[in-house]
Amino acid sequence: MLNRIRQIPLYILAILLLLFTGLPFFVMVSTSFKTQIEFMSAPWSLPESFSFENYRLLLESEFFRFFFNSVIVSVISVVAVIVLGAMASYPLARMRFKLNRPLFILFLVGMMIPIHTTLIPIFLLTKNMGLYDTIWALPGPYIAFALPVSIVIFTQFLKDLPKELEESAKMDGCGPFRLFWKILFPLLTPAVATVAIYNFIQIWNEFIFALVLTNSEENATLPLGLREFYGQFSVNVPGIMAALTLGSLPLLLIYLVAQEKIVKGIAAGSVKG
């Protein structure tokens, strides 16, 4: 009984955190079912009658073109980050060589670089490569800026794996390539989930690089597409909320599927031994 009483503050804190994080999402979803007039007259009330007009407008607009552009860019970037980050972390975590520590510190320094300071050189490089105003201009910068933090996560996780697994595989004649992909990589599932979710959220919501490196609606991503709901003298707030609701669904679904792996990855990366 005493333990339950001691846990009451924790339950109160959990409820407050739930309200703090869940209330904005609830307001967003409820507003998406309002008309513009209803929103202007009572912005914080529940919808009087659920209207699907905003979702019908989304179907008639270019929303799903923007949506699928974001899906293509995000999936390609995240898969590349996982593969390249895991491969780069293997020698940093399991091999001893002179540049091991300096290289790891170099990746840590890469996490500190403000990415928007590189807009001009990346823009010029993209234009010289003939990739300007294509969705293929975006994965390169996204992958480059996502790799440092991903390599740090993978490296810390690989260091915690028992070396006996590696030694046993080598005794059985397993080469480095097969050792990594068949033995070690399957054990990185929690770290992979953490890296995938973290970078997917960052890339899915990225706006500045998409704005600078693309110029047409055909190649615009979802954050750019939301500007379609801004008029010269007014803003279709319920329409924006409907677009945000649909745009946030992939993030929610992926997190719900992989949340257990993410928690394990964070816990494993924070504990040594």
From TrEMBL:
Keywords: Cell membrane, Membrane, Transmembrane, Transmembrane helix, Transport. One of its GO terms (cellular component) is plasma membrane. PROSITE patterns: ABC_TM1. Residues 67-258 form the ABC transmembrane type-1 domain. One of its GO terms (biological process) is transmembrane transport. Belongs to the binding-protein-dependent transport system permease family. This is L-arabinose transport system permease protein AraQ. The gene is araQ_1.
